[in-house]
Amino acid sequence: KLLRDITNAIYLRVLNNFIKTGLPEGLSCELRIKLVPGGKVVGVSIINSSGNDIFDRRAVTAVEKSSPLPVPDDAETLDRLDLRDIKFTFKPRDY
Fold this sequence. Notes:
By secondary structure, the protein is of the alpha+beta class. It is built from 3 helices and 3 strands. It has a 3-stranded antiparallel beta sheet with strand order 2-1-3, covered by helices on one side. A hairpin with a 5-residue loop joins β1 and β2. The longest helix is centred in the N-terminal third of the chain and has 15 residues. The protein is elongated, with a radius of gyration of 13 Å. 20% of the residues are buried.
């Protein structure tokens, strides 16, 4: 449950920083996000592209703007939940 809550909080934070204007509906991409304790984003890369370069770039930018992400501050919990290196599927539902 804790992991699901954290994932949902990250999704909402990224969604709030994502610019949807001018994009077709139904796109998604898979990102790899590297974090340090405190939630600071130290790297974002695209694992699976949406096929739309603008969408992908905006998704990466949204993650970077969302730093620090809402994850536990302590390194032990971050490691226990395996949150230093996250695979994150970004699929905005509310166009």
